[in-house]
Amino acid sequence: MVYSLTYRRPPHVDSARASINGSEKTRSIDEGSINSRGSSVFAGIPDALSFDKIINGGTCPPCTVRDFMNYLIYIEHAAENLQFFLWYRDFAKRFSELPPNERALAPVWTAEQAEADAQVPQGPKQPVSAETAAVFKGTDFAAPTANVVEVKPNPFSTPPKTPNADGESEAPSERAWSDNGSTLHSHTNKSFHSKAAGAFEGADVKWQPFTIQPFREEVSRIIAIYIADGAPRQLNLSSKERAKLLHALANTTHPSAFAKVVHTVEWSLRHQAHPNFIRWTICNGNRPRVIFARGLGVAGILGGIIAAVLITLSNAGRGYRVLSAIGFMIGVATLIAAWKGMCVVLHGMHHRHLRPWELFAEDDDRSSFDIGKGSFDTMGSTNSYEDEPWIAKYEKRNLIRKVFDREVWIQEPALRQIQDTIFLQALGGALIITAISVGIFCAFPKGNFY
């Protein structure tokens, strides 16, 4: 069986499903509504390594969602898609769990409503008088300034929930937001609020800075981090897509307002990032080790050629020329496997090299899954990693040490099965090439030179 990644026409993926609550019709998005219908859209990727399996935590290292995130950060440089997608899943789930009276404050955003509102002229912007600006100066309702400095949250602080005047906790929408450790200081809230207001103003969208809709503060932060132009984790959206999204968010905080953008982000993750991640994960050695394996493969082939030439030029019988098949077989198989990023020595033990960012990480950081820290922090800063300490440490390692870096056992059985298939393909290709090469040398007469 030939292992390949062949593209098929992707199935339709619903971004939202309708649910009826009494006499009110709402749309909620949960984990089961965003899926690939139980099968992979790429032939060659087993269901055990499908996108949904990875996202839902049904895989083992090195194919977990944390490994997927690390790949997007350090290799593909597009982690914002997965970060936004994970936030949206959690956001839609929390929204569906709100009481009916809170959900009623944020109506469903439909395509028909978007087209109807888009035809309404926005009208000229009303200038703000100096007296009005002075009154709102220093408050959440102050006009956004051109230069807003982002205040990065402390990832180690989890502020307690703020009780109301009666000593009770806040509303369910605000309570879920605080439990995620994202309720920051007031000056940070103003920064996010100002950036969100600037994004609405840049898209020429009317927006009220105060609302009783649930999750309005959280949505404002998402706009400032993922949607606004120049945001630290700005999604790759066209100006038209961004304007439509901001227009929807100016009217409601319902998850359906994100439907179009989530569909674009999910398509990119499913049909581009996920297959590339599986191909990259198949490689069990780092780049120096793979180059070293390719060199060994070329050396084995050259050794087979030299042996065949020497035996042909001698007065030995033709049968001795078959001994050159050993060099051909080992060299060609090693070269084919290395060309696909695999080292046959590591594969024999079902081992893989630790990635550079794993070499210098704590054991707890490699094995744990904490959605509130590091790259899984939805409200974190940029995904830049140039200042991470492992980069300088890895660059100081000499080439020999990199070739023989630390190894770890591959826990995911589906990945081991794929690597076994590639190894068998390499052996099959080596057998064919070896038979042809040895047959050519056996066809020559004796040289009788020695």
UniProtKB/TrEMBL annotation:
Keywords: Membrane, Transmembrane, Transmembrane helix
InterPro entries recorded: RGS_sf (IPR036305), RGS_subdomain_2 (IPR044926)
Record protein name field: Regulator of G protein signaling superfamily
Cleaved signal peptide residues: none
Gene3D superfamilies the record matches: Regulator of G-protein Signalling 4, domain 2
Region (Disordered): 150-189
Xref: PANTHER family: RGS DOMAIN-CONTAINING PROTEIN
Superkingdom: Eukaryota
Listed SUPFAM superfamilies: Regulator of G-protein signaling, RGS
Residue intervals passing through the bilayer: 291-313, 320-339, 422-444
